[in-house]
Amino acid sequence: MKAPDRKGQSLLEAMIALGVLMTGFLGIMTLLSQSFFLSRTTSDRLTATYLASEGIELAKNLIDHDVYAGNGWGACFAIPVGGSGDYEVDYATLTQGQSCPPAAYGGRHLIFDQTAHLYGYNFSNAADDLVVTGFTRDVRVAVPAASQGNEIVVTSIVGWPNGQTIMLEDHFYNWRP
């Protein structure tokens, strides 16, 4: 009896092994690409949440500044009862003595100052330290008609290039009627 012919058997085994390995590597590459995408999405969402929170905090600082400066509660925004306004608020509004009310919202992208680690609209630094981001921040300030001027509602809306937005809202009440 003659032994079976095994020519090409090793080549066939090698090709099957390479197919299994390639399938495994493609799965790993798919997982890695998804991981990088989700990491970027999470990072953008976290940054947007902090920027929205900062917008509310900056508006509150302007409201409190009016009280301590003796200008009256919410005078900086000069919003009539039942009215509202949209603003671009950043730290320069507080520190560089910009006039009240702050600049009207114009849809401009926030700029990141890499030296000071701040987001804003206008910086006096060298252009090398500044990066235009994809984030926009609309700080909407409203005085509800039912509050008779004793409540200010601040809504901070941050958007970024992938079309998503984050909206945070807070209510401030006149603690010195």
Set down the secondary structure blueprint.
Layout: H1 9-69, E1 84-88, H2 91-95, E2 103-104, E3 109-113, E4 118-120, E5 130-142, E6 151-159, E7 165-173
Antiparallel strand pairs: 1-2, 1-5, 3-4, 3-5, 5-6, 6-7
Helix content range = 25-40%
What global shape is seen? elongated
Series of H and E elements: HEHEEEEEE
Q: What is the alpha-carbon Rg in Å?
A: 28 Å
Number of strands: 7
In terms of quaternary structure, the protein is single chain
Mean pLDDT: 86
Number of domains: 1
- What is the number of helices? 2
Structural class: alpha+beta
Proportion of β residues? 25-35%
Report the end-to-end length measured between terminal Cα atoms: 110 Å
Low-confidence stretches at least 5 residues in length (pLDDT < 50)?
none
Q: Tell me about the largest β-sheet.
A: 7 strands, antiparallel
